[in-house]
Design a protein that fits this description.
Blueprint: H1 9-14, E1 18-22, H2 30-39, E2 45-49, H3 56-68, E3 74-78, E4 82-83, H4 89-96, H5 102-105, H6 109-115, E5 120-124, H7 139-149, E6 155-157, E7 165-169, H8 170-179, H9 200-215, H10 220-237, H11 244-254, E8 260-266, E9 268-270, E10 274-275
Parallel strand pairs: 1-2, 1-3, 5-8
Antiparallel strand pairs: 3-7, 4-9, 5-7, 6-8, 9-10
Helix pairs in contact: 9-10
């Protein structure tokens, strides 16, 4: 793991220009649309949509590419079945049925996430089934305590957090490109591959090994060592079986950006009902 980049929280909070990225495959839930309209501020925000692509990885990569070509500092990725608090506690509780305490139901999701000064931070939301855990790395262990306590005014580090309501600073994507050039826009016809499944550790090491082989023909032992270490790292960070949210967070951490989850910012997640259902 690379050393985490120390970025002053105040420096991140000073700029609040946010692009709201919508990787929507189908018609969005009406309450998602209402929350979005209430969150949007035209003087410091923009909206970009990737609609109708059944492969969510494509949609997320396209949105991130558009984001980096824009003037905005942050991207809030908001899925079409996620309803974030938007500053109106009564409306949120009545619409979702979550019955959160007023301080939590009345939050503005964008203001709240930006205020933390973290480069990668997501809201708490639960999977779309009655017993599903919250969608972050430690969610299974935290499910019962969180359902018992409700929102907790804490932001904690995590190995990964879901992309349903996720705030990402542009440095995250830029630093992943620097760390893993084969995923970059330059190497992929202009569209970055931040969310795409790829054995990124192995790819990087093989590239370096090939360079060594060309330049130093007698450096066989170093090449073997490099590839052996890469194979070990790849077994740890393998993308096989990972969701694209986990994949992004693994690469972000390796590039110096530790993911966080806001345990106080709860979103509704719509399926057959609005989850979590108590």
């Amino acid at each position: 793991m690379s050393e985490l980049v120390a970025i002053p929280d105040s420096a991140l909070r000073e700029k609040r220009r946010v692009l709201i990225g919508l990787p929507w495959y189908r018609a969005a839930h009406p309450l998602t649309t209402v929350a979005l309209l209430n969150l949007f501020q035209k003087d410091c925000m923009g909206v970009s949509i990737s609609f109708g692509d059944a492969f969510i990885v494509h949609a997320r990569n396209k949105l991130a590419t558009k984001f980096l070509a824009s003037k905005f500092d942050w991207m809030l990725m908001l899925d079409d079945d996620t309803v974030p608090p938007c500053g109106n506690a009564g409306w949120f509780n009545e619409s979702t049925g979550l019955d959160l305490p007023e301080w939590a139901a009345g939050l503005n999701a964008i203001d709240r996430l930006v205020s933390h000064g973290k480069t990668l931070v997501g809201a708490t939301y639960f999977g779309r089934s009655p017993d599903a855990p919250p969608i972050f790395a430690e969610g299974i262990q935290r499910r019962k305590p969180l359902l018992a306590s409700g929102p907790v005014d804490q932001v904690v580090p995590t190995k990964w957090v879901g992309t349903g309501c996720l705030l990402i600073h542009r440095r995250v994507f830029e630093d992943i490109e620097k760390k893993f050039p084969h995923l970059s826009r330059a190497e992929n016809n202009g569209t970055g591959q931040w969310f795409t499944s790829s054995e990124h550790d192995l790819q990087n090491a093989v590239t370096k090994a090939i360079e060594l082989a060309h330049e130093y023909g007698d450096h066989g032992p170093e090449i073997v060592e490099l590839l052996s270490k890469a194979r070990h790292r790849s077994s740890i960070h393998s993308s096989l079986g990972m969701g694209e949210d986990v994949q992004l967070c693994v690469r972000a951490t390796q590039s110096g950006h530790l993911p966080h989850v806001d345990l106080g910012l709860w979103c509704g997640h719509f399926g057959p009902a609005c989850y979590p259902v108590k």
